[in-house]
Amino acid sequence: MTGDRSDPPTYLVAGGARVDAGKTTFSAGLVAHLADRAGDAVGVKPRAGNDLWFDHDDYLIATDAARLYGKDARTLAAANTRALAAADDDSPSPSAVTPESINPVHRLWRPTPGRTGMLGDAERTFLCDRVTTASGTRFVVNGAAEEAGLFPDALTDRLPLAEATRVRDVPAFNEVMAEAHLPAIERLADRVARTPVPVVVESYADVAGTLPRDGPVAPDAVAVVDPGRARLYAGDRYAKARAVAAGSPREGSREEHVDAVTEMIEPLATVSLPALSGDVRGDPDRIAAAYEPAYATLTDSVEN
């Protein structure tokens, strides 16, 4: 977890494209592959998001129980063979794997054609965030979108948003993220670092990594997934390139994109990934069998 050879390995899975790169399929199969080799394995997705319109079935599945998570976190949680370790010695030992336990920050979006949202995204607006904190679940609502009439009536009926924190501009949202979102992700990193089995960390969109660069978790190997292929990188070289990218004018200091990192380093290998049917994608063990050559190359890069 810290890059020490004696620690169980940590694998980062990032996407070469913002959407539909195949990260979750690759991650779920990798968890199954590692569990078969090591006895147990865990997958986490620090940040995730989905769309009220495009992912409506997934939205309904979660909000039927007044919860908010997406298909990716649900898929990874089902692939896990054990819970993450507690964040520290004073925290209670977790007994169950839930989407919220492996995905501390989830954002719900909606399409807004012809409109730019508060966060600067064209054609879409964020509605609310769910943050898993040390004490439970916290919701953060886009008050500007709510006041503009962009909230569906059903959303406030399906989620407990009456007492949620409301933000109306970026500076206020940045304050809330510093107070809630970042500590939630740091707490997940602490749990990953203390977990005594291999861990797969799935990134978000085409972001190079969603755990803190200077935190307790360093990837031992990285897979950048695109449709039909995965580029495999040494974890230490990828981490160094990510740190360099973080200081570039384009990337800023908070979030680095995959292409800004990979343009600086060569992959150890590029492996082919076959197309999979929906039935196979829904079964981590069958994914593991189909992608076994890719997983073997990835794990061999750590073990040899």
Structure report:
Residues 86-114 are annotated as: Disordered. Residues 86-96 have a biased composition (Low complexity). A hairpin with a 2-residue loop joins strand 9 and strand 10 (229-234). The two termini are 17 Å apart. Residues 249-253 have low confidence and may be disordered. The chain is globular and about 55 Å long. The relative contact order is 0.19. The protein has twelve helices and eleven strands. The chain is an alpha/beta fold and 304 residues long. The strands form two sheets. It has a six-stranded mixed sheet. The protein has a five-stranded mixed sheet with strand order 3-4-5-6-7. It has two domains: 1-40 and 203-304, no CATH class; 42-196, no CATH class.
User: What ranges have pLDDT less than 50 throughout 5 or more consecutive residues?
Assistant: 249-253
User: Beta fraction of the residues?
Assistant: 15-25%
Could you say how many structural domains there are in total? 2
The counted number of beta strands is: 11
- Give the overall form: globular
Fraction of residues in helix: 25-40%
What's the end-to-end separation, in Å? 17 Å
Whole-angstrom Rg: 19 Å
SSE topology string: EHEEHHHEEEHHEHEEEHHEHHH
Main beta sheet, described?
Answer: 6 strands, mixed
Mean pLDDT: 93
The largest sheet has its strands arranged as 2-8-1-9-10-11
Structural class: alpha/beta
Number of H/I helices: 12
